[in-house]
Amino acid sequence: MLRLIAGRAGGLVARRATVALTTGSSARMASHGHDGAAVPPEVAETMDMSRPMYWDRLDIPLPEKLYKDELTDADKSLKQKEKGPWSQLTNEEKIALYRLMFRQTYPEMKQPRSEWKTVLGGIFIFVGFTGLVVWWQRVYVYPPRPRTFDDEWRAKQLQRMLDMRVNPIEGLSAKWDYEKGQWK
Amino acid sequence: MHLPKPVMRGLLGKRLRFHLPVAFTLSLVAAIAFKYAVTEPRKQAYADFYKQYDAVKEFNAMKEAGVFESVRPSGE
Fold first, then answer.
1. Does B66 fall in a domain?
2. pLDDT digit string (tens) for A19-69?
3. Is the pLDDT assigned to residue B11 strictly greater than 60?
4. Residue B63 domain-assigned?
5. Is A76 near chain B, with CB under 8 Å?
6. A178 touches chain B (CB under 8 A)
7. Do B61 and A178 touch (CB under 8 A)?
8. B41 in contact with A at a CB cutoff of 8 Å?
């Protein structure tokens, strides 16, 4: 998620100096440091993507490695205790062990975010800009209108098609009443 | 925390046992519906058209309208 916004923000900054979108996301580009969580590469030091990484994802229940790499002594003793029967662990210890292994719980991951507003806003901005480009093209680039688009020409064209009996069974001429000279 | 062990095998087979008959039935229904909604009326439309079709009359009408290059309207 952070990478998506960072990528979009980077792309936008490269093409147009829009401030509105970057100010929203810059507050969230804080680095997570060395604990191996997903970090935008242009903010922190470059990550070695060939090593196992930690990812909070709904469809990856057990990421490639534990969340916390560097265990303090208290953590290490807790891990030792984990090797014994789990009924001897208190609830706080179980939660602490969970937090060692994972950064977010599933409910935390599923929390609704406002990213869609950024995306939708970006879409509208670019569609609007494209509209301006197309308008400019209409004025400065398009050739003169072909004469086949005139109403008079089109009427003569339709009359010729009816005279030729185009699609007389199920199509155009089938819908024209030749005796009365009008549409059926 | 005694949860029952989830089903680990035969998942694809179970899905196919349900979905394949459904798929075949729906395809058959779609084909039959197309036949009786599209092809049969179309065949009837063509039959009706050609029952009352006078080729010479149509030719003369087209000739008078001036669409041919090899034979011009009788006026010219």
1. yes
2. 444 444 444 444 444 444 455 545 567 888 888 888 888 898 888 888 888
3. yes
4. yes
5. no
6. yes
7. yes
8. no
State the complex-level ipTM.
0.76
Query: How many structural domains compose chain B?
Result: 1
- Give dist(CA A3, CA A5) in Å, integer: 6
Mutate to test the interface with A, among B1, B49, B64 (most CBs of A within 10 A): B49
Furthest CA-CA distance within chain A: 100
In a domain, B26, yes or no: no
CA distance B21 to chain A (A): 30
Six-digit token string for B17: 């046992």
* Residue A122 contacts residue A21 (beta carbons within 8 Å): yes
Q: Which of B39, B67, B68, B69 to mutate to test the interface with A (most CBs of A within 10 A)?
A: B67
| Residue matched to tokens 């109403």 | A151
Domain-located, residue B2: no
Q: Which domain holds residue B52?
A: 34-71
All residues of chain A having their beta carbon less than 8 Å from the beta carbon of residue B45 are 169-170
CB < 8 Å to B58, chain A: 165
Q: Residue A134 above 90 pLDDT?
A: yes
Render pLDDT for A139-175 as a digit per residue (tens, 0 to 9): 999 999 999 999 999 999 999 999 999 999 999 999 9
Alpha carbon distance A38, A29 (integer Å): 11
The CA distance from A64 to A53, in Å, is 6
Instruction: Kindly report, residue by residue over A60-99, the tens digit of the pLDDT.
Output: 888 888 888 888 888 888 888 888 888 888 888 888 888 8
